[in-house]
Specification:
Four copies of one chain form a homotetramer.
Chain A (H helix, E strand, L loop, with lengths): L13 H9 L12 H14 L5 E5 L2 H12 L5 E5 L3 H4 L4 H4 L4 E4 L1 E2 L2 E2 L1 H13 L9 E7 L10 H13 L3 E5 L3 H5 L8 H7 L2 E5 L9 E5 L7 H7 L8 H10 L4 H22 L12 E7 H7 L6 E7 L2 E7 L6 H10 L3 H6 L2
Parallel strand pairs in A: 2-3, 2-6, 6-7, 7-8
Antiparallel strand pairs in A: 1-9, 4-5, 8-9, 10-12, 11-12
Helix pairs in contact in A: 1-11, 2-11, 6-7, 12-14
Amino acid sequence: MRTFECDYTEGVHPTVLAALTRTNMEQMSGYGFDPYTARAIERIKDACKAEDAAVTLLVGGTQTNMIALDLLLASFEGVISPETGHINVHEAGAVESTGHKVIALKSTDGVLDVDALEAYLSTFYADATHEHMVRPGAVYLTHPTECGTIYKKEQILRIRALCDRYEMKLYVDGARLGYALGCPENELSLSDLAALCDTFSIGGTKLGLLCGEALVFPKNAPKHLMSQVKRHGGLLAKGRVLGVQFDALFTDGLYEAIGKEAIRHARRIREVLIERGYPIAWESPTNQQFIILSDTEADALKKHVGFDLWGRADEGHWIVRFTSSWSTTDESVAELCNALPFRTALSDRF
Amino acid sequence: MRTFECDYTEGVHPTVLAALTRTNMEQMSGYGFDPYTARAIERIKDACKAEDAAVTLLVGGTQTNMIALDLLLASFEGVISPETGHINVHEAGAVESTGHKVIALKSTDGVLDVDALEAYLSTFYADATHEHMVRPGAVYLTHPTECGTIYKKEQILRIRALCDRYEMKLYVDGARLGYALGCPENELSLSDLAALCDTFSIGGTKLGLLCGEALVFPKNAPKHLMSQVKRHGGLLAKGRVLGVQFDALFTDGLYEAIGKEAIRHARRIREVLIERGYPIAWESPTNQQFIILSDTEADALKKHVGFDLWGRADEGHWIVRFTSSWSTTDESVAELCNALPFRTALSDRF
Amino acid sequence: MRTFECDYTEGVHPTVLAALTRTNMEQMSGYGFDPYTARAIERIKDACKAEDAAVTLLVGGTQTNMIALDLLLASFEGVISPETGHINVHEAGAVESTGHKVIALKSTDGVLDVDALEAYLSTFYADATHEHMVRPGAVYLTHPTECGTIYKKEQILRIRALCDRYEMKLYVDGARLGYALGCPENELSLSDLAALCDTFSIGGTKLGLLCGEALVFPKNAPKHLMSQVKRHGGLLAKGRVLGVQFDALFTDGLYEAIGKEAIRHARRIREVLIERGYPIAWESPTNQQFIILSDTEADALKKHVGFDLWGRADEGHWIVRFTSSWSTTDESVAELCNALPFRTALSDRF
Amino acid sequence: MRTFECDYTEGVHPTVLAALTRTNMEQMSGYGFDPYTARAIERIKDACKAEDAAVTLLVGGTQTNMIALDLLLASFEGVISPETGHINVHEAGAVESTGHKVIALKSTDGVLDVDALEAYLSTFYADATHEHMVRPGAVYLTHPTECGTIYKKEQILRIRALCDRYEMKLYVDGARLGYALGCPENELSLSDLAALCDTFSIGGTKLGLLCGEALVFPKNAPKHLMSQVKRHGGLLAKGRVLGVQFDALFTDGLYEAIGKEAIRHARRIREVLIERGYPIAWESPTNQQFIILSDTEADALKKHVGFDLWGRADEGHWIVRFTSSWSTTDESVAELCNALPFRTALSDRF
């Protein structure tokens, strides 16, 4: 049975696998001192139009977030995150393990409420006791968010302005960035992110790599970056594994193509869901689509197709997620079409 | 001009000062290996009816909280706190500096909402991804709370039961504990806390000491407690400074007497405030009394008496705090009476 | 030009690459909940004769060491390491980043001096101030060591006995373990390690994987292991990448075969070096061979073959390392034979 | 029986106690916002001839060291210390608890060997793998040292030059600084330290305060210093306790007078020890005097006078410490004279 539970159910994009295979027996230095890593970094800088950027290739998303924030923050500073933010919910306290508080603010469908951010900051600095409180040193965002939604450019510009006014850094977690870039609605290019962020990540794991996230510092590269990465257990001995993959991913527009294609499939999945009577939980322009099912409906549906029980809507109902990815094909969406019963059929059976 | 801004505006209770003076030139070993510390610990254990307890004397409240929680929690665990909790707001991230997340839950007037706690825990463990989330390893409470309110015994019993069910520790921050114990409404004695908590603190700083908090582990004393305290910078060379003070504080009922007397004064302060037309923000049975003033009223009042701008009620209004303490006397309350204008007079002037 | 600088210059063993390729488009759950990870763990437990073991698959060596030690140690404890130990020298402070002191003791050729260990411990506990000092909570060893040497069983038994006497854990870092197991001189099998250690690692990166270390807890699996791994940024989204690789590595004796074959090549390399007049720095039975060259000799030799400038012998001389690995072949050793000048020729040229 | 075991066996200097008593019932703001703290800081800046300095008053020595170093170091940097340094031996891993490695170098009688420091640094940066190692970000010294010895000005100048060359900070732990300043041999004044250090501490606890260390940043005050102190549990609610004490200590030359007088007594103690035949372990110009006794001699002597078993000289012999302090008087030294048997008498009895 085919599953659409998440965007990392398969291994590696065939083009990337071919590159790994082709270069496999070449002898290279470790720790990223190989020519493929060097070339991958150049390609990423080109894609971001950020020739002064420092780029480091890391293995996983949580690792990338904890390293990025530990490098951006002074030891006593915390990071503001929407309450739904991955660092606040699903990273097992990795950010706090480096000594930094995550300051959670209200969010709507995963997007940080900029008014709430502004109110928080003006209240914070108006409070005579704020030196007893954790100074917010950075803002953390995901684009797309955990809910599949994306930021408008105007929102990011306002957040950037607040960061400037209150001396904070801006970090955008782009674990699924390619699936935002693939949306017609998206207003934020790689070069926009390079212009507006202090650092941001370009996720590879969910875009067809075995593993790998590129962390981009558009300017002001941290000192001793390699040493800091190593200290957090993030320096891969065979750096080539990341270098060869990212080199392939950023060659001939593969990264962009993957994003666009997955969005095309996501929209077809959405249509199918609607056609069969499933209620959309909220609008998502990206590769994650959310519907609401009663517990009994969810139990019945999982005999037909794989999906993710994303979270509770209320007692008795699940928010359910279907995901497209680099590995989704017209065939697999057709399979979903064939397998997916009309929603009424699910309830009828109970 | 007299101030009622907080309960640590004066130095040390005269009886305690006399003990410090009397013992000053006695030669004693450092680090708590002096006879006064030994005797203080015995007196505290007696007061708690906890003969198996381990007690360590520490200098300050934030230090006590961070040490207590770091000792109770496994390295990867977090602590649940009401969102108003001191560790969540006013300790500059001390708990996070030791690697632990503070998981903030809804509170009403400083009291942790037990229903919200129960809902949080059942939702947490129902979530299939909870191993990606920070395991709650302890519950943190203040008694009295930052809002001057106190827990009912039934609330603590329910929290204890949830701690047992979900394998969590219970820590009660008693920075102002004496002012709860001094309330007729208080249902929780020192021996109740010893029976129900994994650890709790008995604050001395706000009860008339120069500095000093006693941290009580009623059973299961942590291994190498002294070494752990030292590692956090909490071991005082001249341990006698704490030992002599706590010995005096727990002699002849001084601690209890201070609490009761301050509550008597707090109630008189409350009466005076009401008499003069000041609106009580919420009911507090302890030594902190809260009223609401417009910004202009607050500006006018501060020419007559000292108080604390505790926080914003809304745009245009402050929550204002008046505090009694060990150092409050009938004379100082009479001074307040004389100095305090009728509220209407404040507004009239503008 | 061929290099023998280290044992991770190539990608992945062809058999393992075939397994990755074969399983690439299978849909699997993430985070290690895939059938290959499950089977890999069973195979590793079988190889260790440790059916009650918990095994977790991690990406890199530094990450494995910092996680292993953070799980073994209480927050206030430190770890004893030979002064040459990888955690003490070449991990950029990863262990200290988790709050633990590395207590460095004398070593001879990488091997912890057991007499020095015993003396340290008896002195430590005889010191009346030892609660002011960092309690040693674990002993860290590498087998083989950074110098290519290996422990005798009797040494490990003595260390184990000291660990028992002084309530310490024993962790063996097996980043190159396969190259010890492949030596005729080696006295410590996987099942010996499982019987004697609290935890140990089985390195894959240097034994032919793209990346991957297996961390084995023979008994007393840590609670919430996955959550703790996640907190340190060590949980791979596509856990299959490690699962498929370790499954292949522990199938049909591949791991053992790799070790034995590399040792056969190392011995031939050693012979060649001696034949050509290079002075052996010290005897190493494993895959790393060390010679001493003057600076001018080293400069001349690097035009012929790649090697590692391992460290300074003294002013004017280098300790130089040649390494065999899973990727070494009779052909590559023959290439070395052809390329390697007689040592006198190097000096003659200057 | 009188003891000379350490310099913190009594409470507080009578002049300081009088100041505490005199100001006791004055109402003051907390957290150091009181006039005595302000005045103490001005007096300390004057004494250091450092008008741009930031000064913060802290409770204890370990706390001061961990805060000072955490403020000076980037998160990934370590601190170089002589192997005998207090932070390396007797602070229970407090520095490591903040994530920083202590890099221990050879020392002679407590003094960092400047040649060893220079060799370490040049070797470190010559090592091609040094980004895998912990970058030394600061040098830590004690003056006087744990062995009672002091630095020559030329040594500090060389260390400062190395700090400048290798971009490191210099921190001098002055827990007993007053007892160096009181020595005729001392070449380093408070203003020299202010000119040469990035930060240094002026210990009060061992110079006659109940508790208290002043941490001086001669220039480049850390941002949000109060918040950082709070985060480490180092902010005292009743900051007046430190302010009033330091104000008194730095009034009318009390601090200098205490140091000089204690040194006068230390020299008389040294004479007495020599007269009675006790072998001096090494020369110390400051308030700590060290002799060597066999175990049986030590057992016998402790029936006559209190002293500290400082450490083992070898199996069978102790290094024994006698200490003068602010509380030593001509009478107490006379008591020692009367109580101290000739050394031969000790051995005769066994």
